[in-house]
């Protein structure tokens, strides 16, 4: 990363922190971890990501698949707005790689 300033903010879907999160957008990078839990939250989550992004934003997402339907809904919704690039399994650290990590 070539940046002079890094700031982290957390948000829970449905929480009032949304206004604070998007106030400084668009961000250069949006990082999500363990973010997909329920199918009905896929669209609100992707909408939140969209609100934080500009044309040059890179979104990095890593999560454990906890619910197949929720994961499928998230990926389907995400691909309507973003180009997905998956990291090949052989590029992942062997201690932190399994079939449920996406």
From TrEMBL:
One Pfam entry for this protein is Methyltransf_16
Q: Which domain of life is it from?
A: Eukaryota
| Protein's name in the database | Uncharacterized protein
What organism is this sequence from?
Spumella elongata
């Amino acid at each position: 990363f070539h940046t002079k300033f890094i700031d982290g903010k957390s948000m829970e879907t449905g929480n009032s922190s949304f206004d604070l999160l998007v106030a400084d957008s668009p961000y250069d990078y949006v990082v999500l971890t363990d973010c997909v839990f329920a199918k009905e939250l896929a669209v609100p989550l992707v909408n939140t990501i969209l609100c934080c992004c500009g044309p040059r934003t890179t979104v990095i997402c890593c999560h454990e698949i906890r619910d197949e339907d929720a994961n499928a809904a998230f990926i389907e919704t995400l691909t309507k707005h973003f180009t997905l690039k998956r990291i090949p399994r052989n590029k992942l650290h062997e201690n932190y790689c399994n079939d449920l990590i996406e």
